Amino acid sequence: MRCRDAVALCGGAVFALSVCGAAGHAADAPDPAAAPRGLIAEPAPRPQTAIRVQPRFAVKAHLFQVFAGAEYLSRGDFYNSPGARIGAAYYVLEPLALEAQLSHYWSSLDAEAERVKETLGAIPDSHPPGWLALVGARYSIGYGKLMVGGLGGVIHFEPQTFVHAGVHDHGGDVGPSADAGLGFLVFLTPRLFTRIDAALVFERESRSGQTVSVWGTLPSLSLGGML
Predict the structure, then answer these.
(1) Which of 33, 43, 107, 210 could bridge 79 with an S-S bond, Cβ 3.0-4.6 Å?
(2) Neighbours of 140 (CB within 10 A)
């Protein structure tokens, strides 16, 4: 409104007012090069993320494992069959090993079979487990570690799966055998380990003049080392 009134009065005043108005606007306009008040000119650098990936506690690739332990073969055959096992494995890859093992059992009739033997003079047609030789492969499904309070350290472990095939000699009966199951490997040191296996066993055995399929379970506990 003031500029229009000045135009009505005189042209020279209009020019002077227009110049002053432009100067006022120029003074009020923000400087593009100046940073806004209350803001940082450049963002603060982000903190570097610490690398938390750790090397394996124990490396297995291209190394041998040797082990020995105790096991128990249960086939529902009227025999108690505790046994011992020795074996070795070679890890062609970090998770994959080729394995061989030999087991021997000290079998005896269970209490029910002993009663039948005493009363009827009869014994089962099944053969007492004696020897079992298997070869196969073992695969580590994963790798983990667990800190347990009071132990003062970390438990390093690997869940595993395995499959084997071979032969048995049970009381003179020789036939094919196979097993498959899950294992749990725990490293006591980078070179020393203990392992728990739980296997399902399949065998073909001659009973009463015919060959039958026999199923059983075979849990075992082993202690071994890396070479």
Answers:
(1) 107
(2) 19
Structural domain count of the chain: 1
Structure-token match 């472990």, residue found: 157
Which CATH number covers residue 71?
2.40.160.20
Cα distances (angstroms) measured from residue 25 to each of 20, 21, 22, 37: 9, 6, 5, 19
Tokens of 18: 């227009």
> Which residues span the domain enclosing 155?
64-226
- Name 49's Cβ contacts closer than 8 Å, sequence gap at least 6: none
For residue 57, being part of any structural domain is answered with: no
Beta-sheet strands, E only, within 31-81: 64-72, 79-80
Question: What does the alpha-carbon distance between residue 207 and residue 126 come to, in Å, rounded to a whole number?
Answer: 6
Residue 30 is assigned to a structural domain of this protein: no
Rounded Cα gap, residues 149 and 155, in angstroms? 11
Cα distances (Å, whole numbers) of residue 225 to 49, 66, 100, 104: 37, 6, 15, 21
CA-CA distance, 101 to 84, in Å (whole number)? 10
pLDDT digits (tens, 9 = 90+) for 168-218: 999 999 999 999 999 999 999 999 999 999 999 999 999 988 999 999 999
Quick: pLDDT tens for 127-153.
999 999 999 999 999 988 887 766 667
